[in-house]
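Appendix B, record 7
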Amino acid sequence: MVRNYKMILSYDGTRFYGWEHQPNTDMTIQGKLESVLSRMTEQEIEVIGAGRTDAGVHAKGMVANARLDTSMTEEEIRDYMNHYLPDDICVREVRIASDRFHSRYNALGKTYCYTCYTGDLKPVFNRKYVWVLEQAPDVEAMRQAAGYLTGTHDFASFCSNPRMKKSTVRKVDRIEIEPSGAYLNLTYHGTGFLQHMVRILTGTLLEVGWGKRTPESMEELLEAKSRSLAGITAPAKGLCLIKVDYD
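Structure tokens (predicted):
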């Protein structure tokens, strides 16, 4: 009997070319999952993800779904996948979902965290998961700038896809900027994010923190709808998808 299964995944994106299939390589998260499930069911399996994380981006709570014809229990499917998947991908949970559940279309919101490091010594064991900053930013100025970016706006200035045909209006209802020892965590929650949007937001906010921009300039930046006027794109390795929201 074919059933729709919902999966919650964690992965270290360092070695991978992102979530989505790429030509001429099998090093994508989607590709690895489909390969294992196709082997398990002896059928061609399509895995649908809640989003398409970029190359080098990590996830603690990615959600995916796939239709499987198997007599295995949810725990057996999870254990089979974890046995054959590489060590940098973990299936945390497998559950039978409603037939209409779609991990991407049913998603109501996502939480991302971008982690920076501002300490004096090299973060040897966390170096794959943080952006090491050469100077500590002014956190209060960044928070002021984040206030202008919070809400429903046209985020075209923060989208790296110049051929974007769909709407670039998104709702970002929370941007939290919190120091934690030598680390600085920027947490974003919104209904959805454009290509590289969180990384461009992070780079732009840091430029405010470094005094290269004013918090008030965020208003003009939103109105301009021009990627060339926004800040740098923060490196992929500091970004992690924390959670996907559903009803």
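Remarks on this record: The longest strand covers residues 58-69. The helical segments are 29-41, 74-84, 139-149, 197-209, 217-224.
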